[in-house]
Amino acid sequence: MENFVPKRSPVSIVLTCEHAGNQVPAPLRPLFMKAGDVLNSHRGWDPGALPLARRFAAHCGVPLASTTVSRLVVEPNRSLGHKRLFSEFMATLSPTARQELIDQYWTPHRSAVEELIAKTIGSGRTVIHLSVHTFTQHFGDEVRKTDIGLLYDPRRKTERTLCSLWRDELQQLQPAWLVRRNDPYKGSSDGFTTSLRKLFSADEYLGIELEVCQKFFLDSGAEWKRILKEIPVSFTAAVEQFAAGR
Q: What's the whole-model pTM score?
């Protein structure tokens, strides 16, 4: 797998975007006839996540694994059996129909990424898995102040170290950005990276989720252009420091 770091480096990047789109398969569209606003909101997808993830892919020279079916159909960032695996719009579906959605849209993404990670680790390299997301600034009555969130499991020293390096790089590039760790969500909560940590050790696998406030994408101004340029640059700088210390 080609990577921006030197070939002698023990580190490889795996890049994913679980909420890249808000598409609804044709057979399910009648269930969403009155849900246009919800589909287009942060509940339906992560606005801006896909172009940002693509910029990461181009900058790092790695492929991107993404899912463009709406999370309201089946949530690729939730474990099987989680109460939010299916939204309220799927409530009328039979267990068989739900399983078909899992087989069609949940399992292929998860399995492909897991297999890539296992193969890369098998070649003797540590995997840094970056999952790219965006979050809404207005959540209920709360106005979130965070601009960029770096989510990780604080029990894993490798993830703590990388995110500290990354935060420092971001703050040097753009001191005005409010960069927080494990905010607006906890990196140890249920999710794809959390499930992968159960399969791979901390020395083999680092699961990092990037969360960028959607206000930048929605404004589509100069700040969004800086986001697209400088966040990937800061990430590779942090990874190079991390790899050099291993």
A: 0.95
Query: Reduced to 3 states, what is the DSSP secondary structure of residue 17?
Result: strand
One DSSP character per residue, 147-213 reads SEEEE--TT-HHHHHHHHHHHHHHHHH-TTS-EEES-SS-TTSSSHHHHHHTTS-TTTEEEEEEEEE
Give CA–CA dist 130/185, Å, rounded: 15
Bridge-based pairing of strands 205-213 and 148-151 is antiparallel
Cα–Cα dist 194/131, whole Å: 12
The neighbour count for residue 143, using CB atoms within 10 Å, is 8
pLDDT tens sequence across 45-93: 999 999 999 999 999 999 999 999 999 999 999 999 999 999 999 999 9
Fold of 11-244: Aminopeptidase (3.40.630)
Listed by start position, the domains of the chain span: 11-244
The Cα 214–Cα 49 span in angstroms is 9
Residue 147 has which token pair?
A: 């601009």
4 C-beta neighbours (distance < 10 Å), count: 15
41 conformational bin, left if phi > 0, alpha if psi -120 to 50, beta if neither: beta
